[in-house]
Fold each of these.
Amino acid sequence: MNSTAVRARTEAPVIEVFASIQGEGAYVGEPQTFLRLRGCPLRCNWCDTPGSWELGDGEMHARIDAVDAVRRESAWATPFKALCWVAQVESGPPRTLSITGGEPLMWPEFILGLRSLSGTRRVHLETAGAHPRALARVLGAVDHVSLDLKLPRDLDQPVPLEGTDFEASPRDEREWAAARAACLELVRGRDACAKLIVSGEHSARVFDPLVEDLARRAPNVPLYIQPVTPRGRSRAPSAELLNEIVERARELALVVRVIPQVHRSLGVQ
Ligand code: SF4
């Protein structure tokens, strides 16, 4: 086992810590503090944080957007060190802490450590919904889960992340369906939302299995449809496409909202 694997048990590589406005999902508009972790084995075509995928060979750095000055620190952090950075970027009372990535479920022990040191601060998790074992491990440690409903055809093959052998990533439609089902069963009845990113390449019917899975397995969890921010091979969906998916969700008695990435229109991180 190399040094990365050893450290991965208790520490996580941080990309950035900053205070901003939540731009997606059920808590859109809430002032939150964001802790972005490095490392993601998935390869979404429309990923807006591809710089978070790899751990890299050399020394990595975290950007700390502290109130007094922006600075860089060595990226690997214990939960205690990460929470010190969180406090340094906040100019007022503690905010909800949003753990994002990358894929934060690469670092379940780190998330458990954060919870144990966070006191009454709310802790939210943003995840791709591909790793149900890791999600089950941390579920009791977070107050809200924002769970992506991934369309397998929107992803290239996963690339295993060195040192994070906790759980393999789904590789095909069947494995994605199993991972999605397990994750939805886990968040059923909890404070959670499902996020469906819709790009213009597909017909509405392509999204049916995802919406139907949500209605079958976690009908209380609201669906947030997020039109993709065009990049790479992805283009924005039409109003007609969005409306068709909305109506399918409504037929299934889901609570559904359509919200673009609000932080982009606000011009914040
Ligand atoms: S799961 Fe998130 S970080 Fe990973 S490729 Fe997809 S959008 Fe990017």
Amino acid sequence: MSWLSTFIRPKINAFGNNTKDVPDNLWEKCPSCDGMLFHRDLKAAQYVCYHCDHHLRIDVIERLENLFDDGQFKEHAVRNVPIDPLKFKDKKKYADRLNDAQKKRGRKDAIVVAEGKIKGQSCMIAAFDFKFMGGSMGAGVGEGIVLAAEKAVKGNMPLMVIPSSGGARMQEAAISLMQMPRTTVAVEMVKDAGLPYIVLLTDPTTGGVSASFAMLGDIQIAEPGATIGFAGKRVIQETIREELPDGFQTAEYLLEHGVVDMVVARKDQPEKIGSIIDMLMNTNATPKGKGKKSTLKHDNDDATSVPLPDVARGGNQARLKAAAK
Ligand SMILES: [Zn+2]
């Protein structure tokens, strides 16, 4: 070793040491245009690329802060559900996987139930946390949607669900599939109370989530470029052995084909959603609490009268009816 490495190098290292504190994630690359995005500017732009308008995924809490007036909202704690009743294990125990996600994300499951005002209009929101096991829907997430529906009915306010999910949580097998009818019954109760049910589809909304409550909104809003579908493009292509069109399963494609009502940029969402709620709540002019009858027309009004097996119902109806009183 020469003096170069024993004397000069430590000096140089010490000199450059203050760069150590600089985090290495100051810049992010846009997945659409490859443009470099400075983290502070990206945050200020609500995680929308300022080169090409591509909507990147946004943290659930930041999304809620951007939606609600002054970033203020009240979070409601989701009731506990039995943990891992099937004792499922793949490479890792499901209970451990869940525990890790809970520690990392600081919440019980992949859903946040929040109440606040959007442009002065009260609204109950159930929003998915995609960073929590890919926003997958198990009993805990189902419970969150039921809770949000109950609170919306009780508080006489609209319910908005914001899915961002890969679908059913496979570790909960049939229990996760049961959340499909369960959440469907929950949102039907909101509709029965004459309250608006809005869905804001974000990237991605797929699987069992898109096959249940996520497609049942009175108003279906989607975020630009969001992937929305049931099975993935490749799976469909291999099954039907046909080439699928460009933009298949994007928000814009679904708008063109009548599956969603509008595609709204993130920065315009509070304004748009606020005015929709204002419009729907005002047409619903029955005095509060007096035999509220829906003025919204639902094609599937009869669906709720079809008795569901107890296990699928999960006690929703009785609880929601009690909450509606
Ligand atoms: Zn871009």
Amino acid sequence: MSLELFQASYRESSDYQGSGVCALCTEHAPDLFRVGDDSQLAVQCGACAVLVSAAVRDGDVVCHACGAGVPLKSLGRDPLVCVSCLNSGRVSYRHETEYGPVGWREAYLERELDEEPLAPIKQLDPIQLPGGGVMLRHAASEEYFPKLPRDVATHSLRSLVGTPRYSSWQEPMWLFCCFAPMAYHGAWTRAQFHTAAEDGDGRALFERSIDSAGFDLWHTSAFEVGGMHVFKCTLCTRLRVNWEFD
Ligand SMILES: [Zn+2]
Ligand SMILES: [Zn+2]
Ligand SMILES: [Zn+2]
């Protein structure tokens, strides 16, 4: 049992907590991940057994089916959950992505209601993004902001929100390709790029995988003190890199 979109060592997740007992299924598991209070959990109602979805910070909630109280507090602060429960869709993390935040709301609610953004947006000067979408400019504020492409399948967003966050110095940012969230493969060293390159030329692979920074990133300390976070497309296998300095 593994996480489709987290292909790095689990230790590279900021939510990773090692082995223990899962708060949701109460099984002992080799790998547990912390669910912070900005996440959403589906908890089974003790009275009628339906799954009730609630933010961890809500504490106790009322079952929408039978009206019984469902005690989230009994899970404790920052409950720990296993990979099997993550894969069953019972946890929704909130991710920063290149198309803005994606969490439970985006993966389970808003797209069912209306795929158009809520704010009045006038599409001006769309900029093509490498992940397959566009940037839009807000007519009133002149601000640019990303828009989740309509073609991203809802099931792939649900897979993303069921994936724990990766560790980073600054804001993590999940990348997309082929209208789907990519799989995280970890913060790579130069040697890992050499190993991954079919012709052994890690630098050429790196430069094909990164959006232009306008300067020579291969020789910067971003490899050692920040991170070269590598994502791989689950459809076309292309690599993309999101880099950060300390
Ligand atoms: Zn579990
Ligand atoms: Zn109930
Ligand atoms: Zn792709």
Amino acid sequence: MKNKNFRRSLIDISVHAGTSVIGAVLIYFFYKNPFYILSFFIGSIFIDLDHFIDYFLYYGFRFNLRKFVGVEYLASGKVYMFIHSWEILIILLSVSLIFRLDYLFFFSIGMSIHLLIDTFHEIRPLFYSIFFRMHKKFNAHVLCPNSVARLSK
Ligand SMILES: [Zn+2]
């Protein structure tokens, strides 16, 4: 396997799945509410649907799992990942607390754990700021040079 991102993505997916299960067990233990668990799950996993947008913007609707998991769409030179954003998370979390929306709250908790894991994985804290990515014109070479470099290693 040439593309080193493939293995990293698999590790990333496994870590997200593992922490989601742990979180689900904890929520079950404290609240015994399956809809809280579901909201948490959706927040922690489905945020990665983001990557489909970046993929389809580059490849169109020809889907290839290997290219997708290998993050090969970074060859476009752009990284958008609109939902992977601390700003969006802060808005969702605030709305959930102000209006006491339990499901949105657990969704936000799932999303924040996901973003924390991704931040440790990427080792570039500002990367998950949508304003920072906008400021850098979504340029993948500037924002995530290591991931771009791994495409050809
Ligand atoms: Zn992610």
